[in-house]
Amino acid sequence: MTSARNESRRPHLQQLGEWWNSLPRTRQWLVLIPVVLLIYALPVLNPPILSTEPGTNFPIACFNAARFALIALGLNVVVGQAGLLDLGYVGFFAVGAYVAALFTSPDSALAKLPYLVTLPLAMVITMFFGVVLGTPTLRLRGDYLAIVTLGFGEIVRLLATIVPPLKGQVGFQEVGHPPGRLPDGSLIFASSNGTPWYWLVVTLTIAMLMLVGNLERSRVGRAWVAIREDEDAAQIMGVPTFKFKLWAFAIGAAIGGLSGALFAGEVGFVNNQKFDVPTSVLFLAAVVLGGSGNKVGVLLGAFVVSYVPDRFTELANYKYLIFGLALIILMIFRPQGLLGARQRLLAKGREAYQRLIGRPEQVSSESALAAESAKGVGA
Amino acid sequence: MHPLTTFLADAWINFDVGSLRDQFWSNTFDGLTYGAIYALVAMGYTLVYGVLNLINFAHSEVFIVGAYAVFFVLSGLGFGPSAPALSIGALVADLLLAMVAAMLVSAAVAVILERVAYRPLRRKGVPRLVFLITAIGASFTIQYLIFIWRGPSAEPAVIMFRPEAVFTVFGADIDDQQLTIVAAALVLMLVADVFVNRTRLGRGVRAVAQDPDTATLMGVNKERVIMLTFLMGGLLAGAASLFYVMKVPSGVQYSGGFILGIKAFAAAVLGGIGNIRGALLGGLLLGVVSNYGQTLLGASQWSDVVAFVVLVVVLMFRPTGILGESLGKARV
């Protein structure tokens, strides 16, 4: 599906990719370290080209972008890797935020835990929700998962409204934060201070990036790609598709829960108003925009989705419309997103094919969303 | 007491069995009324699913656009927050006018959607994930176009007529509004059923649902059949929007279609998605069950939660629904 328009650009990108992949691991790290340092320094540098001020406090904007990046990374496991459409990701995000709030806020009757303990706890609990929701739906066709998750996203918000212990719009004040004070006695992780929160989220994002990257390179990741490309074929080849789909869904949910708990900590206040389904579609837009299945792509997409409304505040009211339209237009003209998926697994297969037949394989599939499939719509 | 016990003992869910017992029959009749509306909307999901095997997420917006048409036509005709003093004939004429307008607007939106967003994808033979993402993007786009045009709040209520009790069954009143909605919805569903099962065009729809390629070889115009299913879904959703505004006069809001869409989809799955009679049965059942849930649990939002739980439970134990998936398998 490579259109003529992309052909001119593709070789450069491909060369860059090949050059990068041919580097030894240590060299890759050497190149990455300055990039990572630059990313860490971003809120302190506040470069004038990137700055979102006066509209939005720049460290807060950085925190938002990092939070979106973590969410997009988690959603990418579900949508990009395993090819399952999760439209209720905000539900898992909300569950994570409520776990953090329930265990740390003085408004809650529950035992108080240190904030940092609630982060893994939020992951475990959201993972549980993911399994509960995934077990009945993942056995069925993918469409059902889409609508069930869409419903789930809304139901979590409704339950937060109507179940008394979750306190509806009143919500929970003074959600916890990591310990530590500056020499002058003020809190390091204060709500108004985006920079340390940004650093925390970036660190966790990098940790998750490594975790997800290792999973992708393992048997699990290969199973995901196989399921995404052709679920029936994968099943016939002996891949336990249900098990791996459930894993993808649960891991995605856990990362969503983690970002929810981080969000609750930074804002310091959780109520039922912040977890509507449109937010969920923004998350999806972040993944699809950058290129689902490509980790760098989704980080880029997350940056765009979070940064554009923060920078151009006059656009903020139109952001849902803009990203909704962007989804349609991308799907019609460039379903693989800005950067396509990296499929070294299939690339290897294609090389072998070429060597055997002497010409390249006709079908090209660049990402989760560009695979030419016999099961395609109306095929 | 340990804080965890306090937390768990804190009332999460209250069961109000007394009110459910007292209001059982009035809840049943009201639930059937809502169920008739769900059933009409569910038809749109079921027809498109039957033919294309895909969920048209934007169908809820097709529905709410119709509700806006109803609102504009009726406020143009002088309807407002209090019931108008009109003769029966004039009232029926006004309501029919609003219904036709809503049906046309909804159908137009559905067909345009198919043309602009879905057809280019079908031509390319893309995987279903792409189609689903486009559908949710379309749903979102329409929703926020309305948002930008009309703002976040609901439109002022338009009351068509005050419901008056006609007769009493099991100690519960049945009013003329409930009768109108259920009767009109049944007639429309019957028309749709006859259309699909008895007419030439309907045979084409069933043929494409069974086997698109063979149907094409037999001379059925697949693209036209697909357009027809979107058109029918749109017409029925438009009609449903009139009854929705009749039942919920202040429910015309940019996001108003969303939950109703999920409930209608749950109804379609409950009855057996792709099955026209299943949509009716599923709609009525879901309307009644979610109404019971709302009374039993005590807040109107529980109705939505119960509908969602029904959807998940059906998918868990009988994913083909009560009557099975059968638009294609219907007798010829």
Automatic annotation (TrEMBL), chain A:
Entry's Gene Ontology cellular component terms: plasma membrane
Gene Ontology MF: a single term: branched-chain amino acid transmembrane transporter activity
Residue intervals passing through the bilayer: 29-46, 58-79, 84-103, 115-133, 145-163, 197-215, 246-269, 281-308, 320-339
Protein's membrane topology: Multi-pass membrane protein
Keyword Cell membrane: yes
Main location: membrane
Tagged with keyword Cytoplasm: no
Keywords: Cell membrane, Membrane, Transmembrane, Transmembrane helix
Subcellular location: Cell membrane
Matches recorded under PANTHER family: HIGH-AFFINITY BRANCHED-CHAIN AMINO ACID TRANSPORT PROTEIN BRAE, HIGH-AFFINITY BRANCHED-CHAIN AMINO ACID TRANSPORT SYSTEM PERMEASE
Protein name (record): High-affinity branched-chain amino acid ABC transporter (LivM)
Automatic annotation (TrEMBL), chain B:
Entry's transmembrane regions: 35-55, 62-83, 95-117, 129-149, 179-196, 225-246, 252-273, 280-299, 305-324
Record's keyword terms, sorted: Amino-acid transport, Cell inner membrane, Cell membrane, Membrane, Transmembrane, Transmembrane helix, Transport
Pfam families documented for this protein: BPD_transp_2
Membrane topology, from the record: Multi-pass membrane protein
GO biological process: D-alanine transmembrane transport; L-alanine transport; L-isoleucine import across plasma membrane
Family: Belongs to the binding-protein-dependent transport system permease family. LivHM subfamily.
Name of protein: Branched-chain amino acid ABC transporter permease
